[in-house]
Write a structure and sequence with these properties.
heterodimer; A: alpha+beta; SHC Adaptor Protein; 3 domains; five-stranded mixed β-sheet; 10 helices; 5 strands; 48% helix; B: alpha/beta; TIM Barrel; two-stranded antiparallel ribbon; 39% helix; globular
Chain lengths: 198, 406
């Protein structure tokens, strides 16, 4: 990964970021952060990478479901302060549709329309959805996209290439949980023997 | 910040926009067996990146990984698994005795599934391949129709990769080029004679190479008209080891592809015998062979090594050994020890353990201060264990025999 020019933005989203660190980082260029070996700058670099990594994996792993035709919602519990950023990403991807992301304690709402983003954030995911429902007269989505996906996903596995180490490296359990994924291990094919050999 | 009520109101208004939520159809009643069979039919096709350098570049995102460690970023499927070709390694071929039931999508159905999966963030787009059916032109037309529906009717802005079926008509290829981010024709074999060994029904020159040239010429035509399309270009794929070809045969073919056809990338898929096919009893190729071919490919494409240098990585029979080809080349060519403080970028790139990014970091670091220790190189991403036999820092270097080991 390369440190981007707007690395201060990513640094500010880190859960442990503070004013002092931001002030220190303001004097640095992206190139300096990337190659410097000074312990504090190296820490800034690690923090920027940590946030960028989580942003990337949440864009990949968060799944959305329809509520009626104009709301997409999904479970999402990030470690860093990236809720708004990710919500805006999905709003851009689905113009004209309200995107609601959240968990038990907080939620983010965005809609992209007429070339601009409108945002709100608030209480838990279900409370926010309950408040939206009467305004939009919508019901839960009937089409079961998740089961479609599961069938397709299972069809892509090549047993002769089995490589669980690579699988775990690319889909860390922590990130799967943050994105609310059910662990995608193919449980129905697991045998006791396989369990011990893994 | 606006209120939820305002946001709900904005969404309501979108119903009257031309691109509003009305364009998100629900999929109901898709046959699970069909979805699974047509999905399985593309298991051995490789789609590595969904990055597309459009005007606003589309990022590459892997939405899931299977337990073989490969990413699932696209809805990768066959249009139909019915095929009249007789490729002896393929489970979709007509001469495969344990062939699955024949299925086919309709363009509308496929477009809707793609869109639902895309909206729910399972995929970045569609990767559509197919058996040739009874007539490749008819199937190609349906595949193009699917892409057109997605782009025009459903305003789909995700990634589309279309496979061009060998022997399809120029007019269909042209439409595919206009609609997709990337198109590809699988070479499968390294030469016409190798192709004859594995498939009696495809003509290497006219069905495959000629179609690749069509695409190349279409792209150079569009460049003139400044109507740039196909942002991610054309690619190709080979089955490695099915016809007894050597790595050098593959390298020669791939060189031609990069230089004459202008493919962006070549993909390699190690042969594994499939049940019911005529090649059922042939030996599977080790996966490391595929890995070494990719390394060789990288040396040419990313590190810009000369073909003459890369040839030194092959043994007398034209095969790569199961070791990093860059190390073999470095043993051959790196006759003096480099000082990372003075070496050029190109020289640094030739050191095993140093890649383009770490070479760039070294060049930018030493502008400010001299590199004084190996730990500094390690922090810049250099793999010290591999690189140190070829480097000296401040006149001091590791004494190690590693460099001279076979």
């Amino acid at each position: 990964m390369k440190i981007p020019d707007n690395f201060l933005y990513y640094l500010s989203l880190h859960e442990d970021c503070n004013e002092r660190l931001l002030a220190r980082a303001e004097d640095l260029t992206a190139g300096e952060v990337e190659v410097s070996l000074h312990p504090e700058v190296a820490r800034i670099k690690r923090m920027v990478y940590a946030v960028m990594g989580e942003v990337h994996r949440m864009k990949a792993f968060v799944r959305l479901s329809f509520l009626g035709t104009s709301v997409l919602y999904g479970f999402f519990k990030p470690r860093h302060k990236i809720g708004e950023h990710i919500c805006d990403h999905f709003a851009h991807r689905n113009a004209g549709i309200i995107v609601v992301l959240g968990n038990g304690s907080e939620s983010w709402v965005s809609i992209f329309r007429e070339d601009r983003i409108w945002q709100d954030n608030g209480q838990g995911l279900s409370e926010t959805l309950d408040r939206l429902k009467p305004a939009l007269h919508c019901t839960e989505d009937e089409s079961n996209v998740e089961s479609l996906w599961q069938v397709y996903y299972d069809s892509q596995y090549c047993p002769e290439r089995k490589n669980l180490a690579a699988f775990r490296r690319h889909m860390p359990r922590r990130d799967q949980e943050a994105a609310g994924l059910r662990l995608v291990q193919n449980k129905k094919n697991i045998t006791l023997e396989g369990f011990f050999s893994d | 910040m606006v209120t939820l009520e305002k946001i709900a109101h904005l969404a309501e208004e979108c119903r009257f926009d031309s691109m509003g939520p009305a364009a998100s159809p629900a999929v109901v009643g898709v046959d699970a067996e069909k979805l699974s069979t047509l999905g399985e039919g593309t298991r051995h096709d490789v789609c590595a990146s969904t990055f597309s350098p459009r005007e606003t570049p589309l990022p590459g995102i892997c939405h899931a990984f299977t337990q073989d460690g490969r990413c699932v970023s696209l809805f990768k499927t066959l249009y139909t698994n019915h095929c009249t070709h007789q490729c002896s390694y393929c489970t979709n071929a007509i001469n495969c005795s344990s062939k699955a039931r024949a299925f086919s999508y309709t363009p509308e159905e496929l477009a809707k599934i793609t869109l639902s999966l895309y909206r729910s963030n399972y995929i970045e787009g569609l990767f559509l391949s197919s058996g040739a059916g009874r007539d490749e032109d008819r199937i190609m037309e349906k595949m193009v129709e699917t892409a057109r529906l997605l782009r025009q009717k459903f305003a789909f802005s995700g990634y589309i990769h279309l496979k061009v079926l060998p022997g399809s008509a120029r007019a269909h290829i042209k439409e595919a080029v206009e609609l997709a981010d990337r198109v590809s024709i699988n070479l499968e074999a390294a030469s016409a004679s190798h192709m004859n060994e594995i498939c009696a029904t495809k003509n290497y020159e006219s069905d495959i190479l000629q179609r690749q040239r069509y695409i190349r010429d279409m792209l150079s035509d569009t460049a003139k008209n400044t109507n740039a399309s196909l942002p991610a270009g054309q690619t190709t794929q080979l089955v490695v080891g099915v016809a007894g070809e050597s790595d050098e045969d593959i390298f020669k073919r791939v060189l031609y592809e990069y230089k004459e056809i202008g493919v962006r990338r070549a993909y390699y898929s190690a042969f594994s015998p499939q049940r019911g096919t005529p090649f059922e009893n042939r030996k599977a190729q080790p996966l490391w062979r595929e890995h070494r071919l990719y390394q060789m490919d990288w040396l040419f494409r990313v590190y810009h090594f000369q073909p003459g240098e890369i040839r030194h990585a092959f043994n007398d029979n034209g095969f790569l050994s199961n070791a990093d080809p860059k190390m073999a080349i470095a043993r051959e060519f790196m006759d003096k020890i480099l000082d990372p403080n003075t070496a050029t970028f190109q020289e640094l790139l030739r050191v095993p353990g140093i890649g383009p990014r770490s070479a760039k970091r070294i060049v930018s670091f030493r502008k400010r201060q001299a590199i004084a220790a190996k730990a500094e190189l390690a922090a810049m991403g250099v793999r010290i264990k591999r690189a140190s036999p070829f480097l000296k820092i401040n006149g001091w270097r590791d004494t190690t025999l590693e460099m001279w080991q076979a």
